[in-house]
Amino acid sequence: MEENQPKTGKFSLNYGLILGLVSVAFSVMLYTQGLHYEMSTPIIIVSILISVVVIFLGINAFKKANGGYLKLGEALKIAVGIAVVSAIISLLYQYLLINFIEPDFMDKAMEIAKPQAFEKNPSMTEEQWEQAVEMQKKMGWLRYPIGLIISCLLGLIIGLISGLILKKDKAAY
Fold it and tell me: Are 72 and 132 in contact (CB under 8 A)?
């Protein structure tokens, strides 16, 4: 007689929604503090830590619901699923921010980036900077598929590490 095995998709969706909402809340907090233009190391670390915690909790919840057993493949499926769901939510927020909440976001971001770019590359001319800005504006839509891919890769790495930590096969016991 087979037991009802929990579905990885359910955990991916639930914890993906949680991670997406927490990520949007973090982004809104950054926006209200005027820090949403920065991609500083502490902000990146906090974002990654949020992802690690929620993905680990999702995988662990699946393991508990599955009678204490977890295969590495299940951990990877859950982690990437969580990452995809949360990325879609986060990218929707980013789209709303850039196009509706703060339509001049890209212009302000470029203003902030300009001195840093000239500092890092002193031989850059004003004309080269303008070309780079135009290219960024034309190719701005690429941020969404790239963000999704990066999120999936991060989920894969977190899922691999979490899966190796929490792995417990039924056959072994």
Answer: no
CA 154 to chain centre: 7
Check if the beta carbon of residue 80 is closer than 8 Å to that of residue 159.
yes
Q: At 168, give phi and psi (nearest 5°).
A: -155, 105
Q: How many helices (H) and strands (E) does the chain have?
A: 6, 0
Q: Cα angle vertex 26, ends 114, 62, to 5°?
A: 130
Q: For residue 39, how far is the Cα from the chain centroid?
A: 14
The CA dihedral of 21, 22, 27, 29, to the nearest 10 degrees, is: 120
Q: Is the overall model pTM greater than 0.85, yes or no?
A: yes
Top-ranked range on mean pLDDT: pick from 97-101, 105-109, 139-143: 97-101
Which of 59-68, 73-82, 119-128 comes out lowest in average pLDDT?
Answer: 119-128
For 9, half-sphere exposure in the C-beta direction (CA atoms, 13 angstrom radius) is 0
Dihedral angle, C-alpha 74, 77, 79, 81, nearest 10 °? -140
Residue range 18-41, pLDDT digits in tens: 999 999 999 999 999 999 988 899
- Cα pseudo-dihedral 15, 17, 22, 23, rounded to 10: 110
Amino acid (1-letter code) at residue 131: Q
